[in-house]
Design goal:
single chain, alpha+beta, 4 strands
């Protein structure tokens, strides 16, 4: 298989993943019985992507802290907070646009975020998903959200690009 064919195959697979999302199952015990719950994470809208970005920006860099000689126990304790953030990102991907609801009183409209539902689902994921699975799910959410193409399109819409003529060239 040539490199071009591999690239086409991989891009087709990524398009399918972005359009349809991905499903995953969480096993947990409820009243002493083993049960399963199926979830679907889809390509997020801009509003959900904004919420995810707020969480991604807060992630800490563990490798840098360990290389700087910080105590590994403190870094491990800090990693618990990051695990909660990863669970919240996966919960945002699952809830999607249902996180927001529009409220209206007479002529006033505003958007309400359903924080209770988000906190309940992220707590569920935090308690019932193993860290390795949570890491894989958060990476899948990152791939599904297609941040690279989004950032490239924003960069190309900026006023100053390499193809924009400058005043000094016109003289």
């Amino acid at each position: 298989m040539s490199p071009d064919e591999k690239y086409e195959l991989e891009s087709d697979e990524l398009k399918l993943l972005r359009n349809k999302g991905f499903e995953f199952t969480v096993r947990y015990k409820e009243n002493g019985k083993q049960t399963r719950k199926k979830f679907t994470a889809t390509n997020p809208t801009l509003a959900v992507l904004d919420e995810m970005s707020a969480e991604w920006l807060e992630f800490d860099d563990y490798e840098k802290r360990l290389a700087d000689g910080e105590d590994s126990i403190k870094v491990a304790q800090r990693s618990l907070v990051e695990t909660k953030r990863a669970a919240k990102i996966v919960a945002l991907a699952v809830i999607g646009e249902d996180l927001f609801s529009e409220r209206r009183i007479l002529f006033i409209r505003w958007t309400h975020r359903n924080r209770r539902r988000l906190n309940r689902l992220s707590g569920f994921f935090y308690r019932h998903i193993k860290p390795s699975t949570l890491y894989a799910l958060s990476n899948a959410v990152l791939i599904t959200s297609d941040l690279g193409n989004f950032l490239n399109s924003i960069r190309l819409m900026q006023v100053e690009t390499t193809t924009t003529p400058t005043a000094s060239l016109i003289e």
